[in-house]
Design brief:
Rossmann fold; metal-binding; Phosphoserine phosphatase; about 40% helix; Alpha-Beta Plaits; magnesium; binds magnesium ion; 2 domains; elongated; hydrolase; alpha/beta; 12 helices; amino-acid biosynthesis
């Protein structure tokens, strides 16, 4: 049995639900609350996903398509930049040297999958040479902001017994404080090298890229004694692809096209609490949907 979760940023259109139920020939539709409905349907997951995304087209609603049996999760693993927070930290750091447009252009291409991640990272970090580490604290206080729904998603997930992990191709200088602010259990990221409080323009090896994000997912699953089916992974860019494809539920948040095409759910309209609905948790009441 496949469950299709529709979530809207406001009231979900009953007409849209009814028309999708008809198109899918679905067994049943369970209204979760004003914003969300679960539609249950038998059939091939990929084919159903295709039908759902074609059907909702550009309606202001997000959809997540997954096996109903495994929707409850034990692990939530998420990217940081442009997923849990609204910024790309490396671009904000480059602004200290007035290099934001130049660095942001490289970041954009890397996140679209047009450049090799590690090479692009090394090239950009070189441009950060000479920036004081204290600039990072200033950015954390003034510029870096959690994405809408991020704090609630993490808090509710944890109350539901889900381990939360941040894994970032960005930097521990940001990942550690962001994880602490959001109450995330553990954080993994690259390390900027500094000497006497000044960035040297180097990043520690080995670089944490797409493969390492997937390995972190597998390692966390092993430690919990679960399989990747029991994990949800969230991201926005090309370096999240392997992790999002490997997790039982892969969510793409305001994503680059390469990730949107591969994810089970794409969040273009809703905030991150939509991931809770996907896992069968209604965030407003924290009532749980039983697995089918
Ligand atoms: Mg990202």
């Amino acid at each position: 049995m496949i469950v299709v979760t529709l979530v809207a940023p406001g009231p979900l259109s009953p007409q849209l639900v009814a028309s999708l139920v008809g198109t899918l020939g679905a067994h049943r539709a369970d209204r979760v609350d004003e914003q969300a409905t679960d539609i249950y349907v038998e059939g091939d997951r990929r084919a159903i996903r295709e039908t759902v995304f074609t059907h909702i087209h550009d309606a202001p609603v997000d959809a997540i398509v997954q096996p109903a049996r495994t929707r409850r999760k034990r692990l939530l693993i998420s990217d940081m930049d442009s997923t849990l927070i609204g910024q790309e930290c490396i671009d904000e750091l480059a602004a200290v040297h007035d290099l934001k447009p130049r660095v942001a252009a490289i970041t954009e291409r890397a996140m679209r999958g047009e450049l090799a991640f590690a090479d692009a990272l090394i090239e950009r970090v070189k441009l950060l040479t000479g920036i004081p580490e204290s600039s990072i604290e200033t950015l954390l206080d003034t510029v870096i902001t959690p994405s809408p729904g991020a704090a609630e998603m993490i808090a509710v997930a944890k109350r539901n017994g889900i381990r939360t992990v941040l894994v970032s191709g960005g930097f521990m200088h940001f990942a550690e404080p962001v994880a602490e602010r959001l109450g995330i259990d553990a954080a993994f990221a690259n390390r900027l090298i500094a000497a006497d409080g000044i960035l040297t323009g180097a990043v520690a090896q080995p670089i944490l890229g797409a493969d390492e994000k997937k390995v972190r997912l597998l390692t966390e699953c092993e430690a919990l004694g679960i399989t990747p089916e029991d994990a949800i992974a969230l991201g926005d860019g090309a370096n999240d692809l392997a992790m999002v494809e490997t997790a039982g539920l892969g969510i793409a948040y305001r994503p680059k096209p390469i990730l949107a095409a591969a994810a089970d759910g794409v969040l273009r309209h809703c905030d991150l609490t939509a991931a809770l609905y996907a896992m069968g948790i209604a965030p407003n009441t924290e009532s749980s949907v039983s697995s089918v």
